[in-house]
Amino acid sequence: MSKLRYIVPVVLSAAVSLYALAAFSAQSVSPAPQAIVLNAVPIDLSVRRTTKSHGNPKALPHRFANPALLGKVKAELAAETESASPVKSQRSGKPTPTPTATPTPTASPAPISSGVVNPVPFAVSFQAMNLYDGGGYVPPDTTLGAGGSFILEAVNAMGAAYDTSGNLLVNLATTACTTNSSLDSVSDPRVEFDSLSGRWFISSTTFSPIGDASWDLLFSSSNDPATATWYCLIISTSGVKNPDGSTGNFPDFPKLGINYDKVVLTGDAYSQTTGRHGSVSYKLQGAEFVVINKSDLVTLAANPRAAFYAPNQGDFAIEPAQELTQSSTNDALFMAAVNSDVSSTANLDVWTISGVPGVSTLTTIKSALPIDTISYPPNAQQEGAPATIDTNDDSLLDAAYRDGSPGSLWVAGNDACTPAGDSATRSCARFIHVSIGSSMAVDQDFDYGDVGTYYYYPSVRSDSYGDLFSAFTGSSTSLYASAYAAVQTAGSANVLTNLSIFQAGDSPYTISPPRWGDYSGAGVDPDDASVWLGAEYATSIPFLGSYWGTAIAHAQP
Q1: What are the boundaries of each domain within the chain?
Q2: 52 vs 129, 387, 460, CA distance in Å?
Q3: Fold held by 10-53+60-555
Q4: pTM score
Q5: What is the pLDDT of residues 66-80, one digit of tens each?
């Protein structure tokens, strides 16, 4: 792994003011944030790996909201922030459901699409990074972007740039953007290509040691990821005062969103506690996020201006949207979350952030929109193995926005549904579309499921013609975990019209724990009429056994 040339991390003051987001009905306004000063520096990512290592896979303790812990911490958060909630936390002595149990929907399920027979046309598809390319960690957190004539994938500890024929151009040590690259544990990358500036952005989190905890943001000097100079921006959270009075957290499950004038990073703030005998535990302190002046990043300003919203901002796993059509006439950046207190919810929270740090006043408004109930999915069955694959929870996993009249916001996540003609609850891909104009309205809200099949970790992007694209994984007792592409053609509603496997799994996934996800990838091609999709599949190597791989496909409607 390459060393930093130099780095100047900025630690948030221990006197950070706390902002508690009050309970809301339809709409609420977040208080003013804390202004912070940052320093971006050039960094060397030039790792050129030509061979694959085949060490033992390691279970990376990122995405701390794992199936066992997630129900507990979300119940605690609900008990502290939603006093009117009928759900009890584990501290009350009442057991908390976990996503490994088959959920019982609390309302009629969303409309369910099934029986799709039309294939997705692929211009090209190829195998991409795998367990060993990504540093030997599980799960992979498959993310990608498309820009210029390049595809950039980031998985765990590494990134890889490809040309549009699928040829590998360069490997990048994305985890070099941290305070101490030889010591720190870095994970959860997200990749976006900003078409307006022609720059790449890669975000991740440093979660250990807590003294180095931070958001880490890489951004390029050009659209060529192989030849660009990369800059590193560290936003430390090690000095943040948490709602319970403790100091320091790490932003788990970090998300990245970009619009015309802002870059937003969100995370679920976890603090660390060490017991008398050295045992380490983690506590969810709530959501936090930072808003950065994008122009300062693009122009390589010495001190990019930013504003920090300390925990607890409410919600869980807030997903900022990538804006696909950027206009100077609309500086609103949208975020979304389904704030399920334990296992299900019937509200979609849509956040609107306006203003620019250091230029104009920032305002943040959260609107609650009713949706059909979204619930924890069951774990996914697979061919050839009794072990099921973790599907985590029902948090949102991806979001994309297109400006217009009205604007179009798509979000996607995992859900529990019973497909038409099925007798069992499956994990399904959930898609929600919000029309945004003078008001907001949910005008599509549906699951995709098939009899006997489990779908999980969907991504979402749309093209300029209104076609929806998604990548996700699917498996069943007669199907190894495979990479899927799906399309909803323009003019259709509450349905997927095309579905194809672009990389079939060939082995059962037997790594323990059976972590998967936490995302699939999607990036709009520069032609704005097609999308590059990335997803995970199960495979194996003789004598070494099971591992995950990723594949990338160029999908057309």
Answers
A1: 10-53+60-555
A2: 10, 27, 31
A3: Neuraminidase (2.120.10)
A4: 0.86
A5: 334 444 444 444 444
